[in-house]
Fold each of these.
Amino acid sequence: MPPDERRAAILLAVRPVLLERGAAVTSRELAEAAGVAEGTLFRVFTDKVTLIREAVLAAIDPADSVPEVLTIDRTLPLREKLSTLMRQAHSHVGESMRWMGLLHEVGRLEPAGPSAEHREAAIRQWGRRQQAGTAAVTAAVAELLEPDAALLRLPVTDVIELFNTVLIGATMRTVDAARRGLDAGPPDHEQLIDLILHGVLAPTPTDRSA
């Protein structure tokens, strides 16, 4: 297997054990998850911390969700499209937040010095990939909502920003509750869609008669 392919395969294979064990994962567990010997693992990666960091950065790519967005039928009613999109996006954002938490853990383990320069370079490269991935997701969602543009009070791009704000806020609430040992339960996706489409004001008598 070419070096780049082997590297990518290892980064993908260790994801489940990283989500389960976090920064406490051992080199042996990583090697077993990747199906290679520890010596092989560290001929590809400098050390355990580098491997974990690169695996996390590889796992958080917004563009991974584009194929799923494209499976949503553009002819569905607007509410149904938004509800499906919300369920998909909540799953992706929740997992991304778990990865980001692990990235912070790893950051505390990395020593200062020359390796810090490589770490910063990797973060910058990841940032560029994030920007491109986010743009790809936005384009896919815009294509999904475009048939309903005439029904919307705001431009499609503004609706997407509002959707993202509600999505991230709801996800952060769930993640924060779990961090404090509380069970907030999953967000009510239909309630979130109601908020996006209708706000929080009760219908006026004029609205009811329309």
Amino acid sequence: MNTAHDVLAVFCGGDGRYGNLLGVVRDGRACPDEASRQALAKQLGFSETVFVDDPERGVVDIYTPGVRLPFAGHPLVGTAWLLDLELLDLPVGEVWARHDGEFTWIEARPEWAPPRTLRQYGSAAEVDALEVPPPGEWVYAWAWDDESAGRVRARAFPGRGDGIDEDEATGAAALLLTARLGRALNITQGRGSQILTAPGPDGVIELGGRVRHVETVTR
């Protein structure tokens, strides 16, 4: 089976480092069914892996190492950047994308995001000092770094027990936090990843970040 894939870092910091790693299988026919896709996603071990079923129409299929997802933020930002897409076709609906040079943006609705526990702390230092909690609930730990400027410090703990103890950058949780706070955010997550958000009309939120190509694996 040809499982060639690209590896991207999505939501990189301003210096191009960090970002959450993403696998993108450009030819979805390499894994034609849900079982084979789930097996490859588990084998690769990224927080998400994307299978592209139709690059012209932007039809994609997203998997964690353990489950299939109808929507996820960092896979869509990364895939839109890699394939230069303006529209992605997901089970939740159409997701528009745009590129402004440094950043790639998607438009999404917070109700598309899976439930997350948004847990606020008193300071960025408290968030930095957190230990990975035991498996259970999906926790997005956050604190204001500079409330007046909309700067947030965050860490994400999926709690799924699938080998991903902490997500380096999580778009879906950023959508939920933006919806709760009702304002644009500049989020530093994980070791130094950056996620930007901006509320738009009719409940739509823009989610943006930098993307870097890490490698192409051919096998």
